[in-house]
Amino acid sequence: MENVTIRMLAERLQLSTATISKALNNSHEISEETRQRVLALAAELNYVPNPYASSLRKKASNTIAVVIPEVADSFFAEAINGIEAVAQEKGYHVLIYLSHENCQKEQTILKDFQSGRVDGVLISVTTETTATGLEQLVRDKPVVFFDRVCEEVKAAKITTDDAAAAYRATTHLIAGGCRRIGLLSASRQLSISNKRAEGFQQALLDHQLPLLPNAITYCTNDSAANHQLLKTAFLENDYDGIIATTEKLSTAVYEVCEALQWRIPEDLQVIGFSNLSTARFLHPSLTTITQPAFEMGKAAATLLFRALKSNNFPLQQQQEVIPSSLIARNSTLAKDK
Amino acid sequence: MENVTIRMLAERLQLSTATISKALNNSHEISEETRQRVLALAAELNYVPNPYASSLRKKASNTIAVVIPEVADSFFAEAINGIEAVAQEKGYHVLIYLSHENCQKEQTILKDFQSGRVDGVLISVTTETTATGLEQLVRDKPVVFFDRVCEEVKAAKITTDDAAAAYRATTHLIAGGCRRIGLLSASRQLSISNKRAEGFQQALLDHQLPLLPNAITYCTNDSAANHQLLKTAFLENDYDGIIATTEKLSTAVYEVCEALQWRIPEDLQVIGFSNLSTARFLHPSLTTITQPAFEMGKAAATLLFRALKSNNFPLQQQQEVIPSSLIARNSTLAKDK
DNA sequence: CTGAAAGCGCTAACAC
DNA sequence: GTGTTAGCGCTTTCAG
């Protein structure tokens, strides 16, 4: 059976394609009676509209893009959930693009968006991203950054309280008796990484603790390389507390401690930014800064759809900070928050 | 700046749109010289083709759909990674749909595929799915099932060695001294669940162990309900070993054991189907059946693209079973494999 | 090697 | 209320 088109419906009902189109789109200029006839026949013939014909004509695709570095990270997985929930409700489709922490790939992806393939974009940038390409994208169409935002670009942003979270994490370690605290950062560029570093430094300052010369270790995307990097850093700096600012780095700390036979929390107290549902079952259970991943995805999508619905919504000025929470467990000694 | 179209290029170069189109598509009927001129101007004006116009005309979208129950599960997250890697390489786009374990939602999603929005579909069905709708889909366009396949439908399938894995898991528990083994199943319908159950039963049989009347607990998608269900099952059946056939159920077992103050592995040995990278750091470290998630996604996508490339590829007959592996850790007592 | 023309399926003006 | 017409931007015969 070949595809049923609006034209076939028109012929069968002795109506024009325009009428059919309007009837199917619940236009108010169509009488209830013909509307019903059209709908009935459409159902009978199992008519399914061709989205591309419609998109071409309307210059709107009912599709949004989600661009993230990777998906195998609880944060992004949950964020996608939040995004998809909203999109499904609004009848939008979700195209997913993984940049694999590769700025080049990200550029290629962004370039494609100039085609009109998507009506809007939700993006969390790579660790290497600069403003290049993003400025243009934001000018072209509705964009909402979430979590890993690009500071330089004026655009809608959903973030969590990065600096405050790191401040709290640091304070928590200090309360647990740590004096030589290290921070593992995912990037020198990423504003959220820098904010976390700032919160960390401020906390040290406020508690009259010196910033160790090698307090901050900048990690890469290569887990084997990171392992080596951390091992060296741990041995050289003799940390008594560490803050891992990503989920992967949190796991890496456990691996390295195992390799070095350092006990957590006796030899090293650990706090990690992580959304792992199993954090409480780790050995020892991991004290976490848990980000509101699902909510952030949902908030970002909601914002995007508001902009998609009304043109005069000042999207670029929207900024939302959703607080994270510190959950104290056994990888740190301070029991309060 | 309004969108650059093929027509604008044509006017500027005093050529026809047909020539431009051919030049851009590297048609061999175009002279190298004009091809270069066209490409140069396209680059200069930053021409980006409209994918929907092209799709409408060609009746092909260069887009595939991935339909999965959820994304917050390491298995699916890794599978997406595998899929996306292949798709990106082939220049395809990936639409993602979450069925949220809801058969109704899944139906709605499948229905949309009749529109020609996607050229092919990769799907892992919900725990409730029946053949309804799937038969039609498979008739309509290339489809590859992965992991959670639908037995009744004749179609390409990528699975892991479910029965064998469960058999091995059971044998492993028996080797560790378990005599009252329970299995936590995600579904009564799902063929992979049933195969796991079969492998389990066969192993008991082969080792002359009786199948407890309540050996198999069928869980739901509601984690609170599951928690209660497991608690009751654990107390009533006094298991000494348990096989959790999904990642979520594995975590649930840890939760319930904590609540009941049962020690793992002394009171209950646990083995879980899980791809969690942190399995080795759980307390106690979790013995797992680890599925080749990334490979399965990759294999499924590769198969789909083969079908998309050549029409006479007998896609529906393709079946691939990728073995899983048992990784013995401290939640079970047997140390061999 | 290049171009003219026809249309993919749908929608939006504008008539009637 | 319904129909006519003219495309959206691209690809594909088929002529030349």
Describe the structure.
Two copies of one chain form a homodimer. The first copy, chain A, has 337 residues and is of the alpha/beta class. Chain A has three domains: 6-49, 434 Repressor (Amino-terminal Domain); 60-160 and 293-324, Rossmann fold, CATH 3.40.50.2300; 162-290, Rossmann fold, CATH 3.40.50. Chain A is built from twelve helices and twelve strands. Chain A has helices spanning 6-13, 17-24, 32-44, 51-58, 74-90, 103-112, 134-140, 162-175, 191-206, 223-237, 247-260, 293-309; strands at 63-68, 93-98, 120-123, 143-146, 156-160, 181-185, 216-218, 241-244, 269-273, 287-290, 319-322, 325-327. In chain A, the strands form two sheets. The first copy, chain A, has a six-stranded parallel sheet, sandwiched between helices. In chain A, strands 7-6-8-9-10-12 form a six-stranded mixed sheet, sandwiched between helices. In chain A, α1 packs across α2. The longest helix of chain A is centred in the N-terminal third of the chain and has 17 residues, at 74-90. The N and C termini of chain A lie far apart (65 Å). Chains A and B meet through α4, α5, β2, α6 and α11 of A and α4, α5, β2, α6 and α11 of B. The structure holds a DNA duplex (16 and 16 nucleotides). Chains A, B: One of its GO terms (molecular function) is transcription cis-regulatory region binding. Chains A, B: This is LacI family transcriptional regulator.
